[in-house]
Amino acid sequence: MHWLFVVVGYLSGSIPFGVLVAARFAKKDVRAAGSGNIGATNVARVAGKKLGALVLVLDAAKGALPVWLSLHLFPSEPVLHVATAVAAFLGHVFPVWLRFKGGKGVATALGVLLVLLPLPALLGFVVWLLVLALTRVSSVGSLLGGLTAVVAAFVLDAPRPSALLGVGLLVAMLLTHRGNIERLLKRSENKV
Hints:
There is one protein chain. This protein starts with a helix and ends in a 7-residue tail after the last helix. Helix 2 (17-26) packs parallel to helix 3, helix 6 (106-116) packs antiparallel against helix 9 and helix 7 runs antiparallel to helix 8 (138-155). It is built from ten helices and no strands. The chain has helices at 2-13, 17-26, 40-47, 49-73, 78-93, 106-116, 118-135, 138-155, 160-176, 178-185. The protein has one domain.
């Protein structure tokens, strides 16, 4: 039964809420506008901040829900919780419904970490909000928020599997943000 949670995690993570919400409520294809990304930041850019906020919540929830289920049904199986979390994150980044071309995984990572590392995840979210408010550059906030969550997990002596998951997600987000990092270095990164 354990493998079923990994499959459910992937399928849940692969729901392209950015595409669905923007198409339904703004009649726009976020893949063909702005940065072309399906995540909350591009939805906010293309379809408005309210829809961007809705996608942020939905993308976090699609990561949180399968991890929460695995945690509550199998509380003593930390490897299952982490595997479900990784599957949800990968579902967002490589969704089967969009020919494996998805988003950067920040909100979905936030969702899974809110379940497994609540305080570090909240600290990371606050850092993201502050950096976004000060710079209007979501990618900087996302990466600094991810780093904050990882550091906080180790400082607060979080369970080792969950803390290592945080490290893995941060590394994955660095990879999904390669283009953003290049634009940041060239001082040409998009603002929200």
